[in-house]
Amino acid sequence: MNFVSYDYKERKKKVEEILDNTDKIEEVDKLPSEDNFTYTNGYKAWVSAIFIDLRDSTNLFTKHEELDIAKVIRGFTSEIIEILRKDTNNQLKEIGIRGDCVFAIYSTPVLNDLYDVSTRAVYVNTYMNMLNKLLKKRNLPTINAGIGLGLNKILAVKAGRKSSGINNLVWIGEAVAKASKLSDLGNKNGIRPIVMSDIFFTNYIEIEKEKNSNKDVENWWKQEFDFKIGSYYHGNIIVNEFNDWITNEL
After folding, report:
1. Please, which residues bridge with residue 25 across strands?
2. Is the pTM of this model over 0.85?
3. Could you list the pLDDT tens digit for every one of the 250 residues in the chain?
4. Range of 229's domain?
5. With the CA atoms of 45, 48, 54 and 58 taken in that order, what torsion angle do they form, in degrees rounded to the nearest 10?
6. 19 within a domain of the structure (yes/no)
7. Which residue, among 168, 169, 200, has the nearest Cα to 183 in the 3D structure?
8. Which of 98, 115, 150, 230 is disulfide-compatible with 179, CB 3.0–4.6 A?
């Protein structure tokens, strides 16, 4: 019984065309716009990724009413997307939702771009306090999340099928995968919500020291080691003005 009409003999030619015509990988300071990507080229550049992963989602999905779950998930995703996408100066390259995780990928050619990504993580961390306070007022289940941050040079290529309308950029490298893994560590087993890869932290902390020269900023973070992930840093940084408003006025 065969329900799929796939002309494998004819499509073999197309596969060979794809394999033989991908001929250019260009290393750049900043990733170009998606219009510059074709099915024959690719770009390599410094990229930062942020993943916000909902904790204990299985319990949420199985032990609460469907309407309540829908409200919580929408509250979780909508404003985090707003924080991640707003005022990015064309550095945002992809934003989306994978299951119970919201993620974004940015071109970060200079340290200030990386610091901007870290600031978004701090805003997300503070927003979770606001969301949970609003959830409590409505007798809805509260939630926690891990926030993972990764940085590295990675390769971006356009993948999919030409002329089909089904295509996307694929990110090949450590930054995205590590940010996803680190988000899974955050906010559980004694690890604080924001978790940075070693290379992200090394670059981020230099700017934080400059901006807060009168504070012991390194004391905001704790270093850990994982045999699969390597060295990483975790903290629970918030936006003070935002959090004060949540505490006193919300």
Report:
1. 42
2. yes
3. 567 788 888 889 888 988 888 888 999 999 999 889 988 899 999 999 999 999 988 888 888 899 999 999 999 999 999 999 999 888 999 999 998 999 999 999 999 999 999 999 999 999 999 999 999 999 999 999 999 999 999 999 998 877 676 778 999 999 999 999 999 999 999 999 999 999 999 999 999 999 999 999 999 999 999 999 999 999 999 999 999 999 999 8
4. 24-243
5. 30
6. no
7. 200
8. 150
